[in-house]
Design brief:
Length: about 140
């Protein structure tokens, strides 16, 4: 997370009309995805990082007017991307051409993240606990 989020608010209205688009993801999926991609090697370390990030974002946006913030859930955007076209276009104050481009972008089919169980037996906590495969994911 970059500290710019905190300092950008001071420039709102001076250089540009600042708006915040925040996309949140299920915390468990976030942690497991980062572990699977080897961003972290310890479950506890990744969970602390996610917690710190969410706390940072919450405190950073606390003083920002609600009409400047749009929060979407990653899983909802993936499941129903078309339902975000109108609200997001309105929030971003898009013209018709920009709205059409947004619609094309959100309705473009691509690779959707899988929902298969993560294999965490490579991580120290799972090894120490004697857990393998999906057993570690379910613990």
């Amino acid at each position: 997370m970059r500290p710019d989020l905190v300092h950008l608010q001071a420039m709102d209205g001076i250089l540009f009309n600042l708006k915040y688009l925040i996309i949140t993801r299920n915390v468990t999926d976030t942690a497991l995805s980062a572990l699977r991609r080897n961003f972290f090697s310890h479950v506890a370390q990744e969970l602390r990082t996610v917690e710190h990030t969410l706390t940072y974002i919450e405190s950073a946006i606390r003083g920002i007017s609600c009409h400047k913030i749009f929060i979407a859930h990653y899983e909802h955007v993936l499941a129903e991307p078309r339902s975000f076209i109108e609200p997001l276009a309105h929030f971003l104050e898009l013209g018709e051409g920009e709205k059409t481009a947004l619609k094309q972008r959100l309705t473009k089919s691509g690779k959707v993240p899988s929902r298969k169980p993560h294999k965490l037996d490579q991580f120290e906590e799972c090894k120490l606990a004697g857990l393998t495969g999906t057993a570690c994911y379910q613990k």
